[in-house]
Amino acid sequence: MMNSGSPERVILCVVGARPNFVKIAPILSALRTEGSLRAYLCHTGQHYDPELNDSFFRDLDIPSPDSRLEVGSGSHAIQTAEIMRRFEPVLDACRPAALLVVGDVNSTLATALVAAKKGVPVVHVEAGLRSFDRTMPEEINRILTDQLSDLLFVTEPVALDNLAREGIPASRVRLVGNVMIDALHRQIAMATPPSQLLEQQGGVPPDGYAVLTLHRPSNVDDPAVLRPLLEAIRTIGRQLPVVFPVHPRTKARLEAAGLLDRLASPEFRVLPPVGYLDILGLVRDARLVLTDSGGLQEETTALGIPCLTLRDNTERPITLSEGTSTLVGNRPEAIAAAYDDFRRTGGKRGRVPALWDGRAAERIAAELAAWLGAPLAGKHPSSP
User: Fold this and answer.
1) Which region holds residue 21: left if phi is over 0, alpha if psi is between -120 and 50, else beta?
2) Mean of the pLDDT values across residues 112-124?
3) What is the number of other CB atoms lying within 10 angstroms of the CB of residue 296?
4) In 3-state terms, what secondary structure has residue 345?
5) Under CATH, domain 7-178+357-372 is a member of which superfamily?
6) Selected catalytic residue, list 43, 185, 215, 380
């Protein structure tokens, strides 16, 4: 519902893409429990597939958004501009005490820009993460959102160093833990059994399986990269069958490259895009995960599942130094070597990082309440 009563206590929360849904769910729950703050949820529609959106909202027990911008797809420039255009009236009508954004998608930066220019304080959850690769659109979104933010919540100590190096005062930064892991703790008991998901693919392989997710442009956009990458994983599948929920973007690239038929083989158990509880169940019971997803690097670390990260860099270095992730890139020989090491050793097990205890959202809600109890003088002044 729209703001009524005490406007200084309303937190306008923005989601736009599926990773945002996982992060916002425990925050909304914690704000309800905290009691003195009221959340208003705006869904930009950056990821707009209704079936997948609905399943994530249902799986994560997220209330229906108070507003939907229904932006849909487009180039980065068009999508960012359209979010800004449609979001400004929502911000004006809501008159929140602060805007809360999560992650690093276009919706995060676009709405933070609007709020900052209108004098509304910006709160960024999952701040300070850096891949140091500016060819990734997400890296640009992270850096700029952090510069616009008045209060920054970080998941790991390295993020504190990154923000300090970029001139962000320590007084604006809080180390609170990882809300992705909060969501995992809340929902793991309800995860879908793999036997249910794989019933049409012959059931769960008797010696276990690996899970594969692919969607990043660096892996799927160039057929000269995608073809040998797929072959390397197919080779793994001859020893350990690979369950592959195919992202819509990846499916389109496979079709365009004439590679979709390569998945019709015993090495793969192909699934359509799956919901949060589905992927959680698959990963929980997997022997190995191969992925280019940031969130899965964190979830495998929390679950103790070895993870081969199919990227040349990661903005989540704690999953390498403390967790279960190994950075292997997308070259077939590197993937084969990492899999051989997994076969010999059982793979990395690591440990769960400090504050990844399922209570990060509670700490965020408490910090927000305390922060908003003070005068907001000195925040971004509105300018014409």
Assistant:
1) alpha
2) 98
3) 23
4) helix
5) Glycogen Phosphorylase B; (3.40.50.2000)
6) 215
380 among known catalytic residues = no
- Give the separation between CA 272 and CA 47, rounded to whole angstroms: 16
DSSP 127-193: TT---S-TTSHHHHHHHHHHHH-SEEEESSHHHHHHHHHTT--GGGEEE---HHHHHHHHHGGGPPP
The pLDDT confidence band at residue 290, using thresholds 50, 70 and 90, is very high
- Report which of residues 46 and 85 the model is more confident about: 85
193-345, CATH topology level = Rossmann fold (3.40.50)
Exposed (0-12), middle (13-18) or buried (19+): which is 133, by Cβ within 10 Å?
middle
pLDDT of residue 354: 97
Residues 302-307: contacts with CB within 8 Å, 24+ apart?
A: 302/181, 302/184, 302/352, 302/356, 303/184, 304/349, 304/350, 306/342, 306/346, 306/347, 306/348, 306/349, 307/348
Same fold, 7-178+357-372 and 193-345: yes
Own/partner contacts of 48-56, CB < 8 Å, gap of 24 or more, are 48/72, 48/73, 49/248, 49/273, 52/18, 52/273, 52/275, 53/18, 53/21, 55/275, 55/276, 56/18, 56/21, 56/22, 56/275, 56/276
Per-residue model confidence as pLDDT tens digits over 123-150:
999 999 999 999 999 999 999 999 999 9
Residues 78/106, Cβ–Cβ less than 8 Å? no
Q: How confident is the model at residue 164 (pLDDT cuts 50, 70, 90)?
A: very high
- What's the pTM value of the predicted model, to 2 decimals? 0.92
Domain assignments of the chain as residue spans, ordered by start: 7-178+357-372, 193-345
- Confidence band (pLDDT; 50, 70, 90) for 32? very high
Evaluate if residue 4 carries a pLDDT over 70: no
